[in-house]
Design brief:
Distance between the termini: 9 Å
Largest sheet: 4 strands, antiparallel
Oligomer: single chain
Structural class: alpha+beta
CATH class: Alpha Beta
Number of domains: 1
CATH architecture: 2-Layer Sandwich
Strand order of the largest sheet: 2-5-1-6
Bound molecules: adenosine-5'-triphosphate, magnesium ion
Helix content: 10-25%
Strand content: 35-45%
Radius of gyration: 17 Å
Number of helices: 2
């Protein structure tokens, strides 16, 4: 199993969720996070001059899926979350050792 952690613009959450549902992925966890990429946040012009916001609000979506579904899901997330500009986001993928459905005790991919 693989865990996909996708960080992207907040306004893209519905598009990403809907696109994943179309290919059959329902279970996921989302949270509002604060982040920064290579641009180090953003420079804003205010009345008292320029100031920096070091962290910008983003959505983080976490999803554990079968190995064989991972590439397709990553492609779908990229497509749905992309505007083509800086700050569109990033995806991290890692191995998951085990999953358990608490209600039934099912383990592994059956628990997803
Ligand atoms: N190396 C990283 N580790 C953990 N989180 C990261 C990392 N890089 C980016 N993020 C997260 O992803 C969010 C979006 O990053 P962002 O898309 O700005 O990446 P970037 O590398 O600056 O690319 P771009 O130049 O397209 O903006 C960040 O706000 C942060 O939450
Ligand atoms: Mg950036």
């Amino acid at each position: 199993m693989k865990k996909i952690e996708a960080i992207f613009k907040c306004e893209k959450l519905n598009d990403v969720k809907d696109a994943l549902e179309v290919i059959g992925h329902i279970g996921m966890t989302v949270s509002e996070v604060q982040g920064r990429g290579v641009q180090r946040g953003i420079a804003l012009k205010g009345r008292v001059g320029e100031y920096r916001v070091d962290f910008l609000p983003k959505m983080k979506l976490e999803m554990v899926i079968r190995d064989e579904d991972c590439d397709e899901a990553v492609d779908i997330i990229c497509e749905a979350a992309r505007n083509g500009g800086i700050g569109d986001g990033k995806i991290f993928i890692s191995e998951v050792a085990e999953a358990v459905r608490i209600r039934t005790g099912e383990k592994g991919p059956d628990a997803l």
